[in-house]
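Now for a chain:

_____
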Amino acid sequence: MNINATLFAQAVVFAILIWFTMKFVWPPIAKALDERALKISEGLASAEKAKSELAVANKRVEEELSKSRNESATRLADAERRAQTLIEEAKGRATEEAAKIVASARQEAEQQVIKARESLREEVAALAVKGAEQILKREVNAGVHAELLGRLKAEL
């Protein structure tokens, strides 16, 4: 066989192989590689988007936590102020009640002093009448001498 013919035949077979590969094998492989590259780029874009969304979400979470902390601190301060106000009001009411009780006790004591004075006057008047009776050695009639006994009570 001739080397040129062999070389020519191999070139023709190689050309047919290249044509067959370009026509039937290469397009599905190129399509698969393009699809793979597209999926990878979409995945990277999606990951980047998720990363930015995560950063935004983390920022929102921090803002909400900060807002919640501030709100809870404000509520706690309000509660403390309310408690202090309630305590002051309770102290005020207790002071008023104590003043009322003291005033009532003073009034009652004054009434008891007045009653005691009246009782003492009556006793003194009775003693004076008995003393006068013994001095006069006769009985003094309380009905007859009511005016005199009334003046004596008033003077005492």
